[in-house]
Amino acid sequence: MSSPSENAGGNRGKKVRVSFRPNRSTKRRDTDWTRKVRDSGDQELDADRSESVAAKGDLSRRRTIIEFGQGNALDPGLCLGTVIAVRGLFADVDDGEQIWSCTVRRVLRTRTIKDRHPVTVGDHVRFRVESNEKGIERQGVIEAVEPRHGELKRRVRNRIHTIVANVDQAIVVSSASQPHPKPHLIDRYLVAAGVGEIAPVICMNKIDLDEDGMAREILAQYALLGYNTVCTSAATGEGVNELRDILRDKENVFAGQSGVGKSSLLNVIQPGLTLKVGTIVDHTDKGRHTTTTASLIRLEMGGYVVDTPGVKSFDLSAVGRHEIEAHFIEFLDHIPHCKFPDCGHTHETGCAVKGAVERGDIRIERYDSYIRLFEESAS
């Protein structure tokens, strides 16, 4: 835990005005007396005693907080830590010496109301340790979140859910069988990684079950595009050392659908983790959820991995339509030659991307994957 002397400074941060939650600004009366007074000039009005005449002004809808950011001295009472797990309204924060169970300051939740949760696994946070009446340290309260980089996000209902923050590499895990590989789901993760400025690595696990070679062929197609790829088997150990080298000294996240073997791989990569592993539902070829919350695991060889819950789909509808093309890397050489500068590569005439598909320079499966994402994305 950082000591007060380490964080001491003459300034306690920058004062900023922030809005309350929208429901705190809801109109609280039926009669708009303020407008009536303004419109009446010198004419006197009788106020209904059952209602308040004074309107809620801008000041009553905003609040002053202290914001800690780059260029501001830190509050000497705050400690620095990394969020390693989030469970409901609580977050486990590792300060390098011990793990604190922390709540989140209400005003911080107010500022991030558009997000599903104000903090996520991987966040670097400033928190204050609070004591009870006997002076015994009980838990922490997160006061501020440091600026993020490397975010993996998806839409959950009407809010954006940041699955993990501050990672530089995403291991997109698929499986050769049980469940069978889904290239379109891989494409979704690749776009999400690109949007979050995270370097992707495609891992085909359970490669020992690839009897017809289909999984290796799928992986080879991504390798031809320039993606970093690796074949692994948690059962036989194939490719595990290669994957260790990929993970070493980096900030990683494991992502992929349920049942592909993310937890099994981590158990082999770092023996002793004893992460819970699941089974496959035979009649659906889908995995059962064994990892229910994202958790940060520090690696003995250096760096860390965030193990995330498996998802059967990955909603990217918040990504703008014309942003998607930039993350299909085989499109990039052709886009400048499209007839229209705002070409969506769907129905337009003179589209160089569609021409490349017709010539076989772009695989039809990848183009179809792009069309599916384009049609469901935001305009």
Order of SSEs? HEHEEEEHEEEEEHEHEHEHEEEEHHH
Class by SSE composition: alpha/beta
Mean pLDDT: 80
User: Which consecutive residue ranges, at least 5 long each, have pLDDT under 50?
Assistant: 1-12, 49-56, 68-73, 280-289
The number of helices is 10
CATH class of the largest domain: Alpha Beta
Q: Total number of β-strand segments?
A: 17
Q: Give Rg in angstroms.
A: 26 Å
Spell out the CATH superfamily of the largest domain: P-loop containing nucleotide triphosphate hydrolases
Strand order of the largest sheet: 12-11-10-13-17-16
Helix content: 10-25%
Architecture of the largest domain, according to CATH?
A: 3-Layer(aba) Sandwich
Q: Roughly what fraction of the amino acids lie in strands?
A: 25-35%
Report the span from N to C terminus.
46 Å
Task: Characterize the overall form.
Answer: flat
Assembly category: single chain
Please give the domain count: 3
- CATH fold field value of the largest domain: Rossmann fold
- What kind of sheet is the major sheet? 6 strands, mixed
